[in-house]
Each structure stands twice: as C-alpha cells, then as structure tokens.
Amino acid sequence: MTTTSPALPSGDSGTGRAAIAARTLRTDRWWMPPLVTAVGLIAWIAYATVRVFVQKDYFVSDYNYLTPFYSPCISTGCVPEAAHFGRFLPDLWFLPYAALTLPFLLLFRLTCYYYRKAYYRAFWFSPPACAVAEPHAKYTGETRFPLLGQNLHRYFFYAAVIISLINTFDAIVAFKTSDDEFGLGLGNLVLVFNVIALWAYTASCHSCRSIIGGRLNHFSKHPVRYKLWGWVSRLNGKHMQLAWFTLGTLALTDFYIMAVSAGWFDDPRIIN
Ligand code: FES
Prior knowledge:
There is one protein chain. The chain has 272 residues and is mainly alpha-helical. The protein has one domain. It contains eight helices and four strands. It has helices at 32-54, 102-110, 113-122, 153-173, 186-203, 206-213, 223-236, 239-261, and strands at residues 59-60, 65-66, 184-185, 269-271. It has a two-stranded antiparallel ribbon with strand order 1-2. It has a two-stranded antiparallel ribbon with strand order 3-4. It is globular. Bound molecules: FE2/S2 (inorganic) cluster.
C-alpha cells in the first residue's frame, strides 16, 4: 500500500488553512517578539562588524587581554604578543584578524536551532508568530539548498568547542602580566565570566545534547553519559536565554577591552 503526504499548508492561501479572511485572529501584540529580535540582532551584527574590521584596540598588552572578536589573532597585522598561535594571514583591510574562526562562529550561530526560529520569524516572516499566516505562497521547510545546510549544525558545534577552548586559553593567559607576574584585574573577571557563559551556551546546544545522550538503547548501561545528558538537558532548557546572554557578554567583553586598550579608563587592579 502506498501513502501520499498531504500538501504542506502555507501562506494565506495554503490548502491546509481554514478559510479565514483575516491574516490572524490574534489580538495581542504578536509582532513585538519578532520586532525585538530583529532590532537586537541587527544592532549586535552592526557592532560586531564594525569591531571586527576596525583592526585596532583589541589587545591590552600590559595584561594580555585579547578580545574574543580577535581570537585567535593570526594576521601579520596582529600585535606579536596577541598572536598566541602564530601570524600567517596577510594583513588586508577586509580580512578580520581572526578570519580563521569567525566564519565558524557565525555559522554555528546561524544554524543554531534557536536562532533559526528567531530569524525565520523576525526577517523571513515564516511565520512571524504562532497563528499568524506567513506571506509566502510556498513552503519547503529546510529540504532544499541553501537551508539544507542547516543540517551541518553538528559540525559547527565541534568547531565551536575548539573555539571555546581557545577563548579559555586567552582567559588563562590574561592572568599573566607583561612583567611575567600573576595579575588579577576587572578585565580578568570579565574574560572569565564571558568564557563561562560561552561554555554554557555551547554545552546547551541541541546537537551537544544529542551527541552526549543519543544513539543509546539503555541509559542504565551508560551512567556517566546519562549524568552528563541530564546536566546538558537542564542547560538546553535555557538555550534561548543563553543565546542572547552570550551575545551580550561577547559585546561587553569586547567593549571593555576596547575601552581599556584605547585608554578611556584604566583596568581596576586587584593584584599587580
Ligand atoms: Fe543552538 Fe546548537 S542548537 S547552538
């Protein structure tokens, strides 16, 4: 016996939609979440783009503070002390100093399950909100190029783990001052806080949860993975909040390091 799938309802004229003339019967401010999402994402992308291409005020040499937007710094234009992994990219104005990792970070966030929902709603209106018809006549989901590429998220997760390790390394190196002594300042706390937040977001990833707890028939035979899966699942429940929170910590960490590097104020020191 063969079965045929019903056509997917889509748009105002979708075959699966009730014959309602109005675009939606919702009377609440359903447009507010997508609007806030769009404004927040545009503001963050604008800030990050400017910072990534400005190629200055990214490193505080006295305390080894390196902003995550320039990590790892691998361009020949990088300050030598900031280049923990060598300098081998040509120094060109259109090439970010961290050009090796930034595309992977971007793709990690772009293919994230939460951000997908956020930008499908905020920018593509597909749909803009629950029970609000989308303006598109056709709906193919993520079955075709380029959205088929969303399935690569798991691989970008692996890249994000490596980049989080690099960010962790940066935070540890920053405890050493330029005089080779142990130092602790507000900048260290900012860097460490950002790294913890980044790990929380990365660990809360749906792919991470699936990698840790997936493909098992019996949790009882894998107690360690079960335990880890439980922790990751709890974080996973906060994935949306962590997605936004880490956008905030990334921008604030970068801003703080830019401000100290540019001499707008001194880093308050606790030790050395
Ligand atoms: Fe959001 Fe993986 S699902 S980072």
